[in-house]
Amino acid sequence: MRARFLPCRFWAVALLFVCTGFLFSCQTGKAPEGSHLRQQTISLEDIRTRLIDRQKGLSDLKSFIRTTVLTKDHKRSLRQALLVRGGDALRVDTLSLLGQSLGVYIFNDQKVPSLRSVFYDTRRNRVFMGIEVREMLGRTLGIKLNLEEYIGVFAGNIPRLEALRMTGGSLNPERTAYLLEGFDPEDKSRMEIEIDAFTLLPQKVKRTLQDGKVIHIQWQDYQLVADREFPHRIDIEFPAEEAGLTLIFTDPVLNAGIPGESFELPFGNKNTSLSRN
């Protein structure tokens, strides 16, 4: 009677099971790795959708902030109060050491164009509109800046995310962050976005404008506020201007329901002078 030999494939499979069982028995104490970290590719649309859903969860924000403005010529520190409503309304009060308002900037996209952006000089009881608003902001901050473009950024959101077309993405070599790339077809800007791979919280953005200028944004010091992780430090840098600003938040309040009157100025006061340009 001739001996029958089992095929080599059988012995290879058996050896694989033995080795696998040995490895698992030696590594029972190792924490499991998140499934998304084992992927070589990621779903850009899934991450984008989650980020958009998160941003929609914040309807308004109010907080005291310490704003530090740094340019090649000077460093300025301001105590301010910040109000944000969605992506269409912003109010920034610059305060004295005693907490009195020195100047108020308001942007309200629901207003007619001529009244969307205003600056109220409380010391002179004078309201500025038009091109003078940016000039007054420049005097206050020490840097010329269109604050309305950063409403979402102040709330911890990626600017113009819903308009962005995702063009690429990967995990960083340390497998701790998603590195995403996108293009904005409306303003022709490009963005490189860094997202924490574990929490999906935005960390950094590099935005390259159509004219080649670059803006760096960074969100840091996330802390739990109510049921939401909120960044208590935001850095915005403008390398071409050799300037930047840092916002440090104190006791932020989220989704409290800020009334519309908070974004109004006393235009009806007959003693308030107006300046238009």
UniProtKB/TrEMBL annotation:
InterPro entries: DUF4292. This is DUF4292 domain-containing protein. It comes from hydrothermal vent metagenome.
